[in-house]
C-alpha cells in the first residue's frame, strides 16, 4: 500500500456443491477475530448456514494437539459454531487432499487475482479498501457461472441467526499523558481529550474501536509489526498530537516515534536538513509550527513547497511562516493570578453575637454554654445551580 509491502492473508469460504465462493482480506496473521469476522461475513453474503464447517488445521480454531478433535477445539471457536448451528471438522495432519474441494479452487482464485493485477498494471493501492474491491470483482466473476446451482443449494441451507457472534476482543486500557495507548505492543495515538481516562477497545483484525464508557469515541486502523523486543510498531495520527506538540516543540527532538509524525519522506528529509543546520531548538520550533499549519490551516503539499522555496531564498524563519499563513504566534503561559489574602477578622461574622460577647474558651465559658444550651450554627444559604 502506497509503495510499501502489505502483509495480509485471504479468507476463502466455499460451498461444496455449487462452488459458490466468498473471499476477503485479512490484516495481520491468523487469529480468531479474523476467522470470526470472515466466516460471519461469508455466511451473511451467502444467505444461509451449512450443517458442517470444514477447515484445515487452523490455529485460531484448534490447538493442533494429537488426540480427539472435540477436545482439541478452542472454546471460542466452539461457541462460534454453536451460535450458527455448525458442526466443525478439520482435515487430518499431512493429508492435504482431504480439503481438495477448497484447495484447488483457492489456487484458481490466486491465479485470477494475479492476472487481474497484471491487467491493472500495478500492485500498488492507496487504501486496503481499493484492493478489497478488486478482490470482490474476482469472486464475482468466479460466482457468475455458478449462480443457478447456488440458488438450488441455498434452499437447503439453515437460516441465519438474528444476531452476529462477537468478532472482536474487548480490552480495557488507560490513556497515557502523551495521548497514546498501547495495544498488543503497538502504540496508538488518540484524541487528547481522553488523556488519563480508562477506555474500552474493541480489537478487530483491521481496526480498533475506542469507547468511553458505552459511547463510541473514535476508530483507529490496526497496525502490526515484526519486532520481538519492545513496541513493534506505531500508529500515530498527527492531528491527535499537534496541539500538545506545539505547546512543547522541543519534545519533537526526543520523541520515540519521531519518524511517524512526518507525513512522507519529503517532510522527513527536510527535517533532517534543518537539524544539520546546527540550532536544533530553533529547527524544532520551526518544524512543529510548519506541521501545525499543515494540519490546522493549509495542506502538507502547500506548506512543504513554501518551506523549500523560502530555504532556497535563505529567508526561512518562524515569523515568515506565521505571516504567510496568517497564524497567530503561540500564546505564552498565563501568569499566576494574584489572590489577595483576606483578614482573619472576616470570619467573625460567621459566629453568633453571644459567642463574641462572652469571649474566651475556658471552663467558665464551657459551663455557661452548657446551661444555655448548644449554640445554633448558621447554615449556608441555598442557591440554584447554573
Task: Record keyword descriptors for this entry.
386 residues, alpha+beta, 3-stranded mixed sheet, 4-stranded antiparallel sheet, single chain, 15% strand, 39% helix
Largest sheet: 4 strands, antiparallel
User: Which residues sit in consecutive blocks of at least 5 with pLDDT less than 50?
Assistant: 360-386
SSE pattern, N- to C-terminal: EEHEHHEHHHEEEEEEEHHHHHHHH
**Overall spatial form:** extended
Oligomerization: single chain
- Alpha carbon gyration radius: 33 Å
Average pLDDT, all residues: 82
Strand coverage percent: 15-25%
Beta-strand segment tally: 11
What does this structure look like?
- With 386 residues, the chain is of the alpha+beta class.
- 39% of the residues lie in helices and 15% in strands.
- It is built from 14 helices and eleven strands.
- The protein has helices at 32-46, 69-72, 75-84, 100-120, 128-143, 147-154, 238-247, 251-254, 265-275, 280-296, 300-312, 318-324, 353-358, 363-372; strands spanning 8-14, 21-27, 52-55, 87-90, 169-174, 180-183, 186-189, 198-203, 207-212, 215-221, 233-235.
- The strands form four sheets. It has a four-stranded antiparallel β-sheet, with no helix packed on it. The protein has a three-stranded mixed β-sheet with strand order 6-7-11.
- α10 (280-296) packs antiparallel against α11.
- The radius of gyration is 33 Å and the shape is extended.
- Mean pLDDT is 82; it is low at 360-386.
